[in-house]
Write a structure and sequence with these properties.
This protein is mostly helical. The chain contains 9 helices and 4 strands. It is globular and about 60 Å long. This is Mitochondrial adenine nucleotide transporter ADNT1 isoform B.
Protein backbone atom coordinates (compact mmCIF):
# COMPACT_ATOMS: atom_id res chain seq x y z
CA UNK A 1 0.00 0.00 0.00
CA UNK A 2 2.96 2.36 0.60
CA UNK A 3 3.78 2.08 -3.11
CA UNK A 4 0.18 2.90 -4.05
CA UNK A 5 0.26 5.97 -1.83
CA UNK A 6 3.53 7.24 -3.29
CA UNK A 7 2.39 6.40 -6.83
CA UNK A 8 -0.80 8.46 -6.62
CA UNK A 9 1.09 11.47 -5.28
CA UNK A 10 3.72 11.22 -8.01
CA UNK A 11 1.06 11.04 -10.72
CA UNK A 12 -0.77 14.20 -9.65
CA UNK A 13 1.79 16.37 -7.84
CA UNK A 14 2.25 19.99 -8.91
CA UNK A 15 5.17 20.24 -11.40
CA UNK A 16 5.89 23.80 -10.20
CA UNK A 17 6.29 22.66 -6.61
CA UNK A 18 8.07 19.31 -6.78
CA UNK A 19 8.28 17.77 -3.33
CA UNK A 20 9.99 14.54 -4.37
CA UNK A 21 11.28 12.92 -7.55
CA UNK A 22 11.26 9.25 -6.75
CA UNK A 23 9.85 6.43 -4.68
CA UNK A 24 12.26 6.68 -1.73
CA UNK A 25 11.96 10.47 -1.56
CA UNK A 26 8.20 10.18 -1.81
CA UNK A 27 7.96 7.69 1.04
CA UNK A 28 10.22 9.84 3.21
CA UNK A 29 8.16 12.95 2.48
CA UNK A 30 4.86 11.21 3.30
CA UNK A 31 6.36 9.77 6.49
CA UNK A 32 7.64 13.19 7.55
CA UNK A 33 4.44 15.12 6.77
CA UNK A 34 1.72 12.58 7.54
CA UNK A 35 3.37 9.92 9.65
CA UNK A 36 3.03 6.13 9.48
CA UNK A 37 -0.74 6.28 8.92
CA UNK A 38 -0.20 8.45 5.85
CA UNK A 39 1.53 5.54 4.12
CA UNK A 40 -1.68 3.52 4.33
CA UNK A 41 -4.29 6.11 3.33
CA UNK A 42 -6.90 4.44 1.16
CA UNK A 43 -5.73 0.93 2.00
CA UNK A 44 -9.17 -0.17 3.22
CA UNK A 45 -10.77 1.13 0.05
CA UNK A 46 -8.12 -0.57 -2.07
CA UNK A 47 -8.75 -3.92 -0.35
CA UNK A 48 -12.51 -3.51 -0.73
CA UNK A 49 -12.02 -2.79 -4.43
CA UNK A 50 -9.49 -5.44 -5.35
CA UNK A 51 -11.53 -8.42 -4.10
CA UNK A 52 -14.57 -7.95 -6.37
CA UNK A 53 -12.36 -6.62 -9.17
CA UNK A 54 -10.21 -9.75 -9.24
CA UNK A 55 -13.20 -12.05 -8.89
CA UNK A 56 -15.05 -10.41 -11.77
CA UNK A 57 -11.89 -10.25 -13.90
CA UNK A 58 -10.97 -13.94 -13.65
CA UNK A 59 -14.57 -15.09 -14.02
CA UNK A 60 -15.09 -12.83 -17.03
CA UNK A 61 -11.87 -14.06 -18.62
CA UNK A 62 -12.91 -17.69 -18.35
CA UNK A 63 -16.35 -17.01 -19.79
CA UNK A 64 -14.97 -14.82 -22.58
CA UNK A 65 -12.32 -17.43 -23.39
CA UNK A 66 -14.95 -20.16 -23.68
CA UNK A 67 -17.13 -18.02 -25.93
CA UNK A 68 -14.27 -16.90 -28.16
CA UNK A 69 -12.85 -20.43 -28.40
CA UNK A 70 -16.27 -21.81 -29.37
CA UNK A 71 -16.63 -19.23 -32.15
CA UNK A 72 -13.05 -19.80 -33.30
CA UNK A 73 -13.50 -23.56 -33.56
CA UNK A 74 -16.78 -23.10 -35.38
CA UNK A 75 -15.22 -20.67 -37.84
CA UNK A 76 -12.13 -22.80 -38.55
CA UNK A 77 -13.97 -26.10 -38.45
CA UNK A 78 -11.26 -27.48 -36.18
CA UNK A 79 -12.66 -28.84 -32.93
CA UNK A 80 -9.15 -29.19 -31.50
CA UNK A 81 -8.13 -25.58 -32.14
CA UNK A 82 -6.75 -23.65 -29.18
CA UNK A 83 -6.74 -19.97 -28.35
CA UNK A 84 -4.05 -17.94 -30.09
CA UNK A 85 -2.19 -15.12 -28.28
CA UNK A 86 -4.34 -12.59 -30.13
CA UNK A 87 -7.57 -14.30 -29.04
CA UNK A 88 -6.30 -14.44 -25.46
CA UNK A 89 -5.59 -10.73 -25.72
CA UNK A 90 -9.20 -10.18 -26.77
CA UNK A 91 -10.57 -12.30 -23.93
CA UNK A 92 -8.37 -10.50 -21.42
CA UNK A 93 -9.48 -7.12 -22.77
CA UNK A 94 -13.14 -8.09 -22.32
CA UNK A 95 -12.46 -9.24 -18.75
CA UNK A 96 -10.60 -6.03 -17.96
CA UNK A 97 -13.36 -3.78 -19.28
CA UNK A 98 -16.05 -5.61 -17.31
CA UNK A 99 -14.06 -5.68 -14.06
CA UNK A 100 -12.98 -2.04 -14.36
CA UNK A 101 -16.50 -0.82 -15.07
CA UNK A 102 -18.01 -2.84 -12.24
CA UNK A 103 -15.65 -1.46 -9.57
CA UNK A 104 -14.68 1.95 -11.00
CA UNK A 105 -16.43 4.17 -8.40
CA UNK A 106 -14.37 2.48 -5.67
CA UNK A 107 -11.19 3.09 -7.64
CA UNK A 108 -12.15 6.74 -8.10
CA UNK A 109 -12.69 7.42 -4.38
CA UNK A 110 -9.58 5.39 -3.48
CA UNK A 111 -7.55 7.86 -5.53
CA UNK A 112 -9.09 10.81 -3.74
CA UNK A 113 -8.65 9.34 -0.28
CA UNK A 114 -5.01 8.65 -1.09
CA UNK A 115 -4.13 12.18 -2.22
CA UNK A 116 -6.38 14.25 0.06
CA UNK A 117 -4.56 16.85 2.16
CA UNK A 118 -5.40 18.95 5.20
CA UNK A 119 -6.52 21.71 2.81
CA UNK A 120 -8.91 19.46 0.91
CA UNK A 121 -12.51 20.75 1.02
CA UNK A 122 -13.81 17.36 2.15
CA UNK A 123 -12.03 15.03 4.54
CA UNK A 124 -13.13 11.59 3.49
CA UNK A 125 -13.29 9.27 6.47
CA UNK A 126 -13.54 6.13 4.40
CA UNK A 127 -14.82 4.57 1.21
CA UNK A 128 -18.55 4.85 1.91
CA UNK A 129 -18.23 8.39 3.23
CA UNK A 130 -16.23 9.34 0.12
CA UNK A 131 -18.77 7.71 -2.19
CA UNK A 132 -21.71 9.49 -0.55
CA UNK A 133 -19.88 12.84 -0.45
CA UNK A 134 -18.87 12.75 -4.12
CA UNK A 135 -22.36 11.61 -5.09
CA UNK A 136 -23.99 14.40 -3.08
CA UNK A 137 -21.62 17.25 -3.95
CA UNK A 138 -20.65 16.42 -7.54
CA UNK A 139 -23.34 14.11 -8.84
CA UNK A 140 -23.30 10.48 -10.03
CA UNK A 141 -21.25 11.26 -13.15
CA UNK A 142 -18.33 12.29 -10.93
CA UNK A 143 -17.96 8.68 -9.79
CA UNK A 144 -16.93 7.80 -13.35
CA UNK A 145 -14.49 10.63 -14.03
CA UNK A 146 -11.57 9.19 -15.98
CA UNK A 147 -13.56 6.08 -16.94
CA UNK A 148 -12.74 6.32 -20.66
CA UNK A 149 -8.93 6.36 -20.33
CA UNK A 150 -9.29 3.63 -17.71
CA UNK A 151 -11.22 1.40 -20.10
CA UNK A 152 -8.88 2.14 -22.99
CA UNK A 153 -5.90 1.50 -20.75
CA UNK A 154 -7.27 -1.73 -19.34
CA UNK A 155 -7.54 -3.25 -22.84
CA UNK A 156 -3.76 -3.56 -23.38
CA UNK A 157 -3.06 -3.90 -19.65
CA UNK A 158 -5.28 -6.83 -18.69
CA UNK A 159 -5.28 -8.17 -22.23
CA UNK A 160 -1.49 -8.39 -22.30
CA UNK A 161 -1.37 -9.78 -18.76
CA UNK A 162 -3.46 -12.81 -19.73
CA UNK A 163 -2.02 -13.17 -23.25
CA UNK A 164 1.63 -13.01 -22.16
CA UNK A 165 1.11 -15.23 -19.11
CA UNK A 166 -0.72 -17.99 -20.96
CA UNK A 167 1.39 -17.82 -24.13
CA UNK A 168 4.64 -17.86 -22.15
CA UNK A 169 3.45 -20.86 -20.15
CA UNK A 170 2.49 -22.72 -23.33
CA UNK A 171 5.86 -21.99 -24.92
CA UNK A 172 7.76 -23.18 -21.84
CA UNK A 173 5.74 -26.39 -21.62
CA UNK A 174 6.26 -27.16 -25.33
CA UNK A 175 9.95 -26.21 -25.56
CA UNK A 176 10.95 -27.10 -21.98
CA UNK A 177 14.10 -24.96 -21.82
CA UNK A 178 16.49 -25.76 -18.96
CA UNK A 179 14.24 -28.63 -17.90
CA UNK A 180 11.67 -26.35 -16.27
CA UNK A 181 8.75 -28.67 -17.00
CA UNK A 182 8.11 -31.63 -14.72
CA UNK A 183 5.19 -33.98 -15.39
CA UNK A 184 3.78 -31.51 -17.95
CA UNK A 185 3.54 -28.84 -15.25
CA UNK A 186 5.49 -25.70 -14.43
CA UNK A 187 6.70 -25.07 -10.91
CA UNK A 188 5.22 -22.28 -8.82
CA UNK A 189 8.46 -20.31 -9.17
CA UNK A 190 8.38 -20.55 -12.97
CA UNK A 191 4.74 -19.50 -13.07
CA UNK A 192 5.54 -16.56 -10.83
CA UNK A 193 8.23 -15.54 -13.33
CA UNK A 194 5.68 -15.78 -16.15
CA UNK A 195 3.29 -13.62 -14.18
CA UNK A 196 6.01 -11.06 -13.47
CA UNK A 197 6.86 -10.83 -17.16
CA UNK A 198 3.19 -10.39 -18.02
CA UNK A 199 2.75 -7.67 -15.38
CA UNK A 200 5.85 -5.79 -16.53
CA UNK A 201 4.80 -5.71 -20.18
CA UNK A 202 1.15 -4.89 -19.48
CA UNK A 203 1.68 -2.05 -17.02
CA UNK A 204 4.47 -0.42 -19.09
CA UNK A 205 2.28 -0.27 -22.20
CA UNK A 206 -0.81 1.01 -20.39
CA UNK A 207 0.83 3.26 -17.79
CA UNK A 208 0.33 6.67 -19.51
CA UNK A 209 -3.42 6.07 -19.52
CA UNK A 210 -3.30 5.33 -15.79
CA UNK A 211 -1.64 8.70 -15.16
CA UNK A 212 -4.29 10.49 -17.23
CA UNK A 213 -7.07 8.59 -15.46
CA UNK A 214 -5.78 9.60 -12.03
CA UNK A 215 -5.51 13.25 -13.03
CA UNK A 216 -9.00 13.32 -14.50
CA UNK A 217 -10.35 11.85 -11.27
CA UNK A 218 -9.03 14.91 -9.40
CA UNK A 219 -10.78 17.44 -11.67
CA UNK A 220 -13.41 19.43 -9.80
CA UNK A 221 -11.88 18.67 -6.40
CA UNK A 222 -10.32 21.93 -5.23
CA UNK A 223 -7.17 21.95 -3.10
CA UNK A 224 -6.32 18.35 -3.84
CA UNK A 225 -2.70 17.54 -4.70
CA UNK A 226 -3.48 18.35 -8.33
CA UNK A 227 -1.46 19.76 -11.18
CA UNK A 228 -1.20 23.47 -11.99
CA UNK A 229 0.40 25.21 -14.92
CA UNK A 230 1.28 28.67 -16.17
CA UNK A 231 -0.94 30.12 -18.89
CA UNK A 232 0.56 33.61 -19.17
CA UNK A 233 -1.67 34.95 -16.39
CA UNK A 234 -0.01 33.06 -13.58
CA UNK A 235 -0.36 29.54 -12.28
CA UNK A 236 -3.84 28.07 -12.54
CA UNK A 237 -5.29 24.61 -11.83
CA UNK A 238 -5.48 22.44 -14.91
CA UNK A 239 -8.98 21.53 -16.07
CA UNK A 240 -9.48 18.79 -18.61
CA UNK A 241 -12.35 18.64 -21.07
CA UNK A 242 -11.62 15.01 -21.84
CA UNK A 243 -8.98 12.35 -22.24
CA UNK A 244 -7.33 13.86 -25.33
CA UNK A 245 -7.21 17.29 -23.68
CA UNK A 246 -5.62 15.76 -20.57
CA UNK A 247 -2.93 14.11 -22.69
CA UNK A 248 -2.29 17.32 -24.60
CA UNK A 249 -1.97 19.54 -21.52
CA UNK A 250 0.17 17.04 -19.62
CA UNK A 251 2.69 16.77 -22.46
CA UNK A 252 2.56 20.51 -23.20
CA UNK A 253 3.22 21.72 -19.66
CA UNK A 254 5.34 18.88 -18.31
CA UNK A 255 6.77 16.99 -21.23
CA UNK A 256 6.33 13.42 -22.43
CA UNK A 257 8.10 12.04 -19.36
CA UNK A 258 5.18 13.16 -17.18
CA UNK A 259 3.12 10.33 -18.65
CA UNK A 260 5.41 7.92 -16.81
CA UNK A 261 5.47 9.66 -13.43
CA UNK A 262 5.43 7.02 -10.70
CA UNK A 263 6.35 4.14 -13.02
CA UNK A 264 8.90 2.73 -10.57
CA UNK A 265 6.58 2.45 -7.54
CA UNK A 266 3.89 1.17 -9.87
CA UNK A 267 6.23 -1.57 -11.10
CA UNK A 268 7.19 -2.48 -7.53
CA UNK A 269 3.49 -2.85 -6.75
CA UNK A 270 2.08 -4.32 -9.96
CA UNK A 271 4.68 -6.85 -11.10
CA UNK A 272 4.65 -9.06 -7.97
CA UNK A 273 0.90 -8.57 -7.43
CA UNK A 274 0.06 -9.77 -10.95
CA UNK A 275 2.39 -12.76 -10.61
CA UNK A 276 0.96 -13.74 -7.21
CA UNK A 277 -2.63 -13.24 -8.42
CA UNK A 278 -2.24 -15.61 -11.37
CA UNK A 279 -0.44 -18.32 -9.42
CA UNK A 280 -2.72 -18.06 -6.38
CA UNK A 281 -5.78 -18.34 -8.63
CA UNK A 282 -4.49 -21.54 -10.20
CA UNK A 283 -3.25 -23.07 -6.94
CA UNK A 284 -6.55 -22.39 -5.15
CA UNK A 285 -8.48 -23.98 -8.01
CA UNK A 286 -6.23 -27.03 -7.75
CA UNK A 287 -6.86 -27.23 -4.01
CA UNK A 288 -10.63 -26.91 -4.52
CA UNK A 289 -10.54 -29.59 -7.18
CA UNK A 290 -11.69 -27.36 -10.02
CA UNK A 291 -10.36 -28.97 -13.19
CA UNK A 292 -10.75 -26.08 -15.62
CA UNK A 293 -7.82 -23.69 -15.37
CA UNK A 294 -7.08 -20.42 -17.11
CA UNK A 295 -5.12 -22.01 -19.95
CA UNK A 296 -7.87 -24.55 -20.60
Amino acid sequence: MCDVMCLCHLQVQNPHSIKYNGTIQGLKYIWRTEGFRGLFKGNGTNCARIVPNSAVKFFSYEQASKGILHLYRKQTGNEDAQLTPLLRLGAGACAGIIAMSATYPMDMVRGRITVQTEKSPYQYRGMFHALSTVLREEGPRALYKGWLPSVIGVIPYVGLNFAVYESLKDWLIKSNPLGLVQDSELSVTTRLACGAAAGTIGQTVAYPLDVIRRRMQMVGWNHAASVVAGDGRGKVPLEYTGMVDAFRKTVRYEGFGALYKGLVPNSVKVVPSIAIAFVTYEVVKDILGVEIRISD
